[in-house]
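ZP: hey, is the 1,3-dihydroxyacetonephosphate complex queued? I don't see it on the tracker
AM: it wasn't, my bad. submitting now with these inputs:
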Amino acid sequence: MDERALREELAVLGKSLFDRGYSVGTAGNVSVRLPDGYLMTPTNSCLGRLDPARISKLAPDWSHITGDKPSKEVFLHRAVLTARPEAGAVVHLHSTYATAISCLAPEGGDAEVPPLTPYFVMRIGRRLPCVPYYRPGDGAMEPAVFEAAKVAKALLLANHGPVVSGATLRDAVYAAEELEEAARLALLLRNVPGVRRLTPAQVDDLLQTFG
Ligand SMILES: O=C(CO)COP(=O)(O)O
Ligand SMILES: [Zn+2]
């Protein structure tokens, strides 16, 4: 996909996320890797109303080249895209259920989202680290995010929200949606007796087949 098509797709997918309540107000931001740098949603922009022509463009060294001023979470996106060279895009949301889990998970540990359904395992994998709380946009989070992103496709920012990577922009969005649904199921079924999880063998099978 060329840059023009990716800009259009970013606006379409941003609106889709916003319209379904995965993002409210100006919450969340998205980055996409390009052959000559990165696209990034502008700071204080609403994911539901992105203008493709005004999306920020950053150079390979992450300096701002064109478009509106980029998201204050440039460090967050840089950490994930640097830790995961195979990732083509990163989606950060404040979606309700994943954010709720980010308020329960131990800072610096892994969040407890059990493998209940195949698509969570296929799109997110085995681990969901929770990076300690930092103020939004605080560059000091970068090393912790980098370490978490090295071991997992998705992570949580404590008391803030999810950060999800994918091979393409579409993959990252789909994975963010899947994480939100898994978080919702995890909370719905929390402390409910008799909940059946996927077995370790079923998880292995999914990761070997689709991972
Ligand atoms: O989600 C956000 C901060 O974490 C939104 O910030 P930006 O508007 O700067 O992208
Ligand atoms: Zn945020």
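AM: back. The helical segments are 3-19, 74-83, 96-104, 118-123, 142-151, 169-188, 200-210.
ZP: great, adding it to the tracker
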